[in-house]
Design a protein that fits this description.
alpha/beta, about 325 residues, 5-stranded parallel sheet, Rossmann fold, 7 strands, 2 domains
């Protein structure tokens, strides 16, 4: 899953820093050991020289089996002496070796020529920092979604019970080819809360999620449009919007309108549909208003391929203020 060049380079730089720090700590630990036990340094040098002789013997060819066996035995004896000196200082061989954050790749980001999970995870985290809103994922959970705010309206209560259940199931069953959803309804009915609850569970499954308001993404796309030297080159923001496993586009219709933003949003929605990547869009606009603001083509894609989730009730924020 690509997150763009900047994200990739930053992730590689952080891993490289982690690798250097681990090796520096190991070097300092080894130096402290050698200061206390100079004999260990001499044995370490002998081990290196012994290994070099073995390598030269292999390269020289001929019948070197007997010589290699002697060198092997000497190497094992030196290793045993070295470990005994470590033990006398209360150390193990691991205490003076680098302790990498990722033991699989040694903080290089790759193992067996393939990108390591640690580099993928770091890119995902950096993408959240770079483009995500400061979303209160810890507070916006399914358990924290109260149906008490809908009890005054039986119809709204029944609807929202179904909405909550459907959102739970969507998060539990999420796959990279899950359907896209449109959260429709007035302000303050829980659209953002439930979209964040879905995001939290999907992230826990190990998938890459981008969450943000339409305004946030519009600003990012506009900024990169004017900042990049090559207008035709793909942008990091656009790459993230297209490649993430789940895109959550909140408050569609509240962004500052422009022809470029409208075209960019359509491109994101259409491209993700074509690649079968799910998107969750929340909006206060009706389908007719979506058509009027964006285009008939845009509204048609939403109506034809998104599952409609309608939110009913009274503004929760107003109810909270009234209760105070």
């Amino acid at each position: 899953m690509g997150y763009g060049k900047k994200i990739y380079e930053e992730a590689r730089a952080r891993l490289e820093q982690s690798r250097r720090e681990a090796e520096d700590r190991a070097r300092l630990a080894a130096e402290a050991f050698y200061q206390k036990c100079p004999e260990a340094r001499e044995i370490k040098d002998q081990m290196g020289a012994n290994a070099a002789r073995a390598a030269r013997a292999v390269v020289s060819g001929g019948d070197v089996r007997a010589g290699l066996m002697k060198l092997r035995d000497r190497g094992m004896a030196l290793q045993a002496q070295y470990e005994e000196l470590l033990k006398q200082q209360g150390l193990t061989p691991q205490d003076i070796k680098p302790r990498y954050a990722c033991p699989l790749c040694g903080d290089t980001g790759f193992t067996d020529g393939r990108m390591c999970q640690c580099l993928k995870r770091l890119q995902r985290n950096l993408a959240y920092e770079a483009l995500n809103m400061n979303a209160p994922l810890g507070k916006s959970t399914f358990e924290g979604f109260s149906l008490d705010y809908y009890k005054d309206d039986p119809r709204a209560l029944r609807q929202m019970e179904g909405v909550l259940s459907a959102c739970r199931q969507y998060a539990q069953r999420f796959r990279p080819d899950s359907p896209s959803l449109l959260f429709k309804g007035a302000t303050g009915l829980g659209k953002t809360h439930l979209s964040l609850a879905i995001a939290g569970q999907v992230i826990e499954k190990g998938y890459g999620v981008l969450y943000g308001s339409a305004q946030t993404f519009a600003v990012a796309l506009e900024r990169e449009r004017f900042d990049r030297p090559d207008p035709e080159a793909p942008t990091d923001a656009n790459s993230q919007l297209l490649s993430c496993d789940l895109l959550i586009l909140d408050d569609l219709g509240t962004e500052f309108p422009s022809q470029y933003v409208n075209a960019a949003l359509y491109h994101v929605v259409n491209s993700r549909l074509l690649s079968e990547k799910p998107t969750i869009i929340s909006t206060n606009l009706s389908m007719k208003e979506l058509e009027s603001r964006y285009s008939e083509r845009f509204a048609s894609r939403i109506a034809g391929f998104y599952g409609m989730v309608e939110f009913l009730g009274r503004d929760i924020r107003i109810q909270r203020r009234t209760a105070r």
